[in-house]
Design a protein that fits this description.
InterPro entries: YlxR, YlxR-like_sf, YlxR_dom. It comes from Brevibacterium casei. Pfam families: YlxR. This protein has about 90 residues and is an alpha+beta fold. The protein has one domain (about 10-75): YlxR-like (Hypothetical Cytosolic Protein, Chain: A), CATH 3.30.1230.10. Helices cover about 15% and strands about 20% of the residues. It has helices at about 55-60, 65-70, and strands at about 10, 15-20, 25-30, 35-40, 50. β3 and β4 form a beta hairpin. About 20% of the residues are buried.
């Protein structure tokens, strides 16, 4: 990686790589419900999973498969966070 390039991560839904700043990070916290929580600050401890914040990837992530693959554990529907696939308006 070049000194000036941004860190790259892979989206768990579409499997495309992107700059870390373009993706949302989720962390698996088995002691909480939902067990998968968004990491807005991108600093929570633990294994992270990265995903594009667009409707297509969010819809694909509604199944547990992308999260189970990323966290290397069984994920149930109750573990999944509420994912808002509606476009947001600024202002």
């Amino acid at each position: 990686m070049n000194a000036g390039s941004a860190p790259q991560r892979t989206c768990i839904a579409c499997r495309q790589t992107a700059d870390r700043d373009e993706l949302m990070r989720f962390v698996h916290r088995p002691d909480e419900r939902p067990a998968i929580v968004p990491d807005v600050s991108k600093t929570l401890p633990g294994r992270g999973a990265w995903m594009h914040p667009d409707a297509k990837c969010l819809e694909k992530a509604r199944t547990s498969a992308p999260f189970a693959r990323a966290f290397r554990t069984k994920i149930t529907a109750s573990d999944l966070p509420e994912l808002d696939t509606e476009p947001r308006q600024n202002g």
